[in-house]
Amino acid sequence: MNTIKDLGEFGLIEKIKKLFDNPENAIGIGDDCAVLPFDKTNLLVTVDTLIENVHFFSNHPMDKLAIKAININISDIVACGGYPKWAFLSLSLNPEMKTSSLEMFFDSLQKNFSKNNIFLLGGNTTKDDKLSINITLIGETDKPILRSSAKANQDVYVTGKIGCAACGFFALKNNVTESNECLEKFLAPQARIDLIDKIKPYATAMIDISDGLLQDAMHICTSSNIGMDIFLENINLCESKHLSNIDKITFGEDYELLFCADKKHRNSLLEINDIKLIGYTNNSKKLIIYNKGEIIIPQKYGFKHF
Ligand SMILES: Nc1ncnc2c1ncn2[C@@H]1O[C@H](COP(=O)(O)OP(=O)(O)O)[C@@H](O)[C@H]1O
Ligand SMILES: Cc1ncc(C[n+]2csc(CCOP(=O)(O)OP(=O)(O)O)c2C)c(N)n1
Ligand SMILES: [Mg+2]
After folding, report:
1. Where Mg(2+) 5 is bound, by residue (predicted)?
2. Is 253 annotated as contributing to ligand binding?
3. What's this model's pTM, rounded to 2 decimal places?
């Protein structure tokens, strides 16, 4: 008997997409956000969920969990070239949860909404054995940057350091010591809202890295109908010795930005702090990873729920 596991996460999303009509003047399923042209601007809408023991361990500090819940959503808005504005919050709570834990969560959530000029407009509250946090975030942009608009012969860039969240997760799971940088990247990631104005003038296509650098690069390739050569030695990788370089580029949860840009903008882009040129696009429709001249064939490209 066929199961959801046989379909796979992205097979299932494709199946859902085919069942429904596409909106005429808007972009729906398939990008980091839906893009809705509205009164000379574009609204960006995204929704992501965090579920206990699927996305976080039960002892995740509640203030950091609030930071994670908001930043994974801000990251999708930023990946489409926008700023977040309005939010809806759905919570499933275990009735035995301490109110002091919930207060810690809300105190942090309020501070982080306020810091990012986000207004909470509504939500939903239900009971469940496991804690889950679901945020719908609405943002705005004058110029949406999609996954589908990269062209062949462009440069491929990535922001920040890749693999720290993976090493933070590994350390918490296996009870080994790890740097604060790695632990924080897993527990309380920061979306790259700080870089959006600098990248936006040049980016032809962009995605945030939630499922792993390789898998998310592949999403740009598939959506844009192009290929990419990526050079492992050019990626700014986390220094931790706990995981292999391949693990670091396939675990996910980096919430860094991967984008393409015309080669003529290389000097301007390389002047920006915290951005690395990691590869080039081409017409091959294949993603090839090189390590010091040799092709690597990874066993997996990134995280899939099933
Ligand atoms: N159950 C669903 N129903 C409709 N659209 C979905 C569903 N799950 C995912 N999508 C859409 O599929 C695309 C890929 O989803 P996902 O991999 O979760 O993206 P992201 O990493 O940006 O959160 C997005 O456009 C998302 O809105
Ligand atoms: C307890 C626990 N187990 C495993 C993981 C690893 N993990 C869970 S989801 C995920 C990828 C990102 O989550 P997803 O729900 O796919 O977010 P989206 O791509 O939709 O933004 C990873 C690496 C984790 N964070 N916590
Ligand atoms: Mg998602």
Report:
1. 211
2. yes
3. 0.98
